Amino acid sequence: MSERNMESETAEAGRGTDYDMVVVGAGPAGATFARLAARRYRVLLVDRRTEGVKCCGGLVAPDAQAQLARFDIGIPKRVVADPQLFYVRSVDLETGRERRYQRHYTNVDRGAFDAYLLELLPRGVDFRSGARYLGHREADRGLVVEIEGKGGVEEISCGVLVGADGAFSRVRSKALGDFASIRKYLAVQGEFVRLDPVRHYAVFFDRTLTDFYSWLIPKDDALILGGAFRGEEDARGKFERLVEAVGRKGYRLGARTKIDACFVLRPRLRDIRIGEGKVALIGEAAGFISPSSAEGLSYAYASAVALARALERPDAAWLARYRRGTARLRLNILGKNLKGIVMYNRFLRNLVFMSGIGSLGGGGTRRSAEGYPAKDSGGARNEDDDAGSRAG
Questions:
Q1: What is the pLDDT of residues 302-330, one digit of tens each?
Q2: What's the number of domains the chain is made of?
Q3: Per-residue pLDDT tens for 222-256?
Q4: What range does the domain containing 161 cover?
Q5: Where are the alpha helices (DSSP H) in 224-383?
């Protein structure tokens, strides 16, 4: 089998258009893998969206910046949102304690950012938006994938199916059937008119709302406020309580212009599955996302690279190579789970706040820190910390 054409191994004769690989999901993981795989293979990339943005804060954290640097990819001005953020205000809403921590995030328009990554696709990738994955089945020499697009349902034969379709992965559900057992949250995020300047990223902890965290991010003339809530039953009610609590911390929210919701994984090691047979999973579909911060971009890039490298040799051992290639990611997620024990334990977190270790100073008590007046605190009476970045 040649590297450029796997059709002799994967095609079921007479069944639609043959591709070496079909990638479901055109977010950062899928777009990155398709771009890399197209050097050797014919790739079909499909995404059910025609427009709209993932429920996500749109922050590119340092680990993701490092991955982009390895790709020699910069972020154009048209993708960047105001302001750029250099610290995190971390607030325990139950105790009133808080700290500020220096972090460097690139603030982006997530929709424009995803579109930019698609612009980088080479000509060897066939991209279809508004195309929904329905399912797949084994064929004599590969897989047959059912895709519903503008022209109806089409059956497409391929050698490898790649699920890059996020936390609520239909590919994973069809291939592994384990969605119900994965530790997951419902992220609810609203966009509000910004009334005052806010010059930082804020994270909030409150066990009465969630055992995870909530976030607030300024983005041009808007404020993005969201939270990740366990269970779907009262997520909207908890979000409304979050809006009220954030207001009491000094953030004035204008009219709500949008509200979205999506699943987000908080993976344990047993929740990470890279695929089986001729199906591979990357990014959040595989469980590669930080369980302490829900940062996903760096894991999306790293898993896409690992799979592309594993498939450089088109033989039957590619999935085993992919498993070895992602061993460091699994170890990283184990470490993030251990970090989360401290972050999400109120007693331990407040000890860290009171110690001031790693902080910019000030804000460790229940009252506002002297020396940081409201006019300098970016629209709030107090400043900051780091739980992570809900970047997608």
A1: 999 999 999 998 788 999 999 999 999 99
A2: 1
A3: 999 999 999 777 999 999 999 999 999 999 999 99
A4: 7-54+112-181+267-337
A5: 235-248, 297-310, 318-325, 327-343, 346-355
